[in-house]
């Protein structure tokens, strides 16, 4: 789209819109087709991420019981599991679907209320709009 973009995190409606946190448009009857498509693509991307973390936890089940690990060791443990997981995935190391039984997705507590509008960044709307344009130019999918 002619503008360099940095990486962004995906958030849900409870997060404040920032130029580094993309969140969906608020669902209502006034959303344009473009905004609906943006929300759909964001939801799809979020499900890919959830699936990746589920596979990571299933392959490295030590991540399911990190509560007995020292806080100093935890970042190294998680990073090592991520690196090893990516190596396994890149080399088509077989993934045993039975592993998923022990790594059911857990619903983490989320804020009940959306972030106050004062926390939102005006520049972030420009980033979201650029993403909307990009998704529109890519067509369906």
Automatic annotation (TrEMBL):
Hydrolase among keywords: yes
GO CC annotation terms, alphabetical: nucleus
Span of domain DDE Tnp4: 5-86
Cofactor or coenzyme needed: a divalent metal cation
Pfam families the UniProt entry points to: DDE_Tnp_4 (PF13359)
Alphabetically ordered keywords of this record: Hydrolase, Metal-binding, Nuclease, Nucleus
Domain of life the protein comes from: Eukaryota
Subcellular location: Nucleus
Record carries keyword Acyltransferase: no
Gene Ontology MF terms: hydrolase activity; metal ion binding; nuclease activity
Family classification: Belongs to the HARBI1 family.
Protein name: ALP1 protein
Organism: Origma solitaria
Lineage of the species this protein comes from: Eukaryota, Metazoa, Chordata, Craniata, Vertebrata
């Amino acid at each position: 789209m002619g503008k360099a973009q940095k990486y962004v995190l995906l958030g849900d409606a409870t997060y404040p819109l920032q130029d580094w946190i993309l969140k969906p448009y608020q669902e209502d009857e006034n959303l344009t087709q473009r905004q609906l498509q943006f929300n759909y693509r964001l939801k799809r991307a979020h499900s890919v991420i959830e699936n990746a973390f589920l596979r990571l936890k299933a392959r490295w089940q030590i991540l399911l019981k990190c509560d007995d690990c020292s806080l100093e060791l935890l970042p190294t443990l998680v990073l090592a599991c991520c690196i090893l997981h990516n190596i396994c995935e890149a080399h088509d190391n077989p993934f045993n679907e039975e592993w998923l039984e022990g790594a059911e997705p857990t619903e983490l507590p989320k804020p009940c209320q959306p972030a106050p509008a004062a926390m939102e960044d005006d520049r972030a709307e420009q980033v979201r709009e650029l993403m909307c344009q990009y998704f529109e130019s890519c067509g369906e999918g």
